[in-house]
Amino acid sequence: MLYKDVAAHALAVPSTITTDAVNSQIKHGLSMYIALKHSHMLLVAISVLLFFTRYISSEVGAQFVKAKFFKIAPHIVDTLLLATGIALIFTVGYSLWPINWLTVKIALVVAYIIAGTVAMKGAGKGKRRVAALVALICIMGILHLALSKSF
């Protein structure tokens, strides 16, 4: 049996597909994963930076935070962040059940969104500060889970 026939049989594909074609598909999948992962990480950094810039600026009364850019950009960034996260889940094939690090990370993202909303729009300075602290704790938990992949 030829090498390409063994590879084709092992991959359960017709022998007309060469190992070069299979290797090309693997490289394409890997490059797609790397592009998605780096895009996701960049969007995380931008999202967190925008959140804390908006929060701190609103706390000190800075007027630039009321500009249209700061009202629209976070929604665009967070939508792209969500899209890359979902694409990564499908690319890698992670399962959300049974409960694992990814499930907990998604729960922390939801908690971060809620806390961030309260921090930006809540009534009372004390309530906004507590919500911002909760958002920061959620971010640290998300980063821990993303780096360690342990729960």
From TrEMBL:
Top-rank lineage group of the source organism: Bacteria
Chain ranges passing through the membrane: 39-57, 69-93, 99-118, 130-147
Pfam families on file: SirB (PF04247)
Presence of the UniProt keyword Transmembrane in the record: yes
Keywords: Membrane, Transmembrane, Transmembrane helix
Keyword presence, Transmembrane: yes
Annotated protein name in UniProt: SirB2 family protein
Species name: Gilvimarinus gilvus
